Amino acid sequence: MAKTKEISRRIKSVSSTKKITKAMEMVAAAKMRKAIEAVLKTRAYANLSWETILHLAQSVASRSETPHPLLSKRQEISKVAVILITSNRGMCGGYNTAIISKARESLKKYNIPTDFILVGKKGAVVSGQGYNVAAEFNKSDIITDAREIYPLVKLVLNDYQSGKYDKVLLAYTDFVNPAKQVPRLKQILPVELETDQYLGVVEKQAVAQPKEKASLADFSEYTFEPSPLEVLDLLVPRLLEVQLYQAFLEANASEHSARMTAMHQATEAANDMVSELTLFYNKARQASITAEIAEISAGANALAE
């Protein structure tokens, strides 16, 4: 009897947990739909802005003009900053572990002092892994305005231009689909025209276009007024804002997708556990009933004799 009561308590406990995970799955699904809608709306603009800056930088370089300070590669790399975007809460599977591991694996190959700029509470784990945390920023579950990242952009630009950092990397998670999210480490400062082979990889996603349509690379001459360098003075900081804003959107969509998947799997596991415990309960109850019947039969036989 005690065994059946224990199993019954476990069934009730697992059923309560299942209700919680199911509710969390539904909440994550609602947030995921909004995040996916936002990330798909801005992705083409973010990619095209990246292409525009690269073409403009190539134009300046081809004319042998003085390179823009945010585009010129520094000869000596003495310190690096990594903007790490994680979640504020857990219950999202391996989402945080994957991006933190991606950043650490890319950085530990090089003996370079590194500061982390954290966005999201779960990134604080790096402080216990020997890395210095230079700043922390709050992260919204649903970001709706680029102005929310202005303090981060201002900090990064000031620190890079003052010479505090020689490279600024961005560690975030690209949203592919609700079932797949890919951790990325992308260099955002200085903006380089070629793939960065030193720390991480610059991921430049081209805007999807039919083959018959021309891309920016097909055009070699543009007229900029007052000058390409002055245009870059305005555009490069804006590019940084756009890239960071897009990274936040990608990270949010990835986080909510990972949480929805994790909670769905937890709900399915709870269903399986309830079914298994119910089977154990029925077997234990049947065994108890059989034992009681046997005892009654034995008692009746003893009285009959």
Describe this structure in words.
The chain is an alpha/beta fold and 305 residues long. It has 2 domains: 2-24 and 265-294, Helix Hairpins (Orthogonal Bundle); 25-208 and 220-260, Pyruvate Kinase, Chain: A, domain 1. The protein has 4 helices and 5 strands, in the order αβαββαββα. The protein has a 5-stranded mixed β-sheet, sandwiched between helices. The longest helix has 77 residues, at 228-304. The model is unreliable at 195-217 (pLDDT under 50).
Topology:
Blueprint: H1 2-62, E1 80-85, H2 95-107, E2 114-119, E3 132-137, H3 150-161, E4 167-177, E5 180-189, H4 228-304
Parallel strand pairs: 1-2, 1-4, 2-3
Antiparallel strand pairs: 4-5
Helix pairs in contact: 1-4
Report how far the terminal alpha carbons are from each other.
30 Å
CATH superfamily of the largest domain: ATP synthase, F1 complex, gamma subunit
Radius of gyration: 28 Å
Q: What would you say the CATH architecture of the largest domain is?
A: 3-Layer(aba) Sandwich
Q: Please summarize the sheet with the most strands.
A: 5 strands, mixed
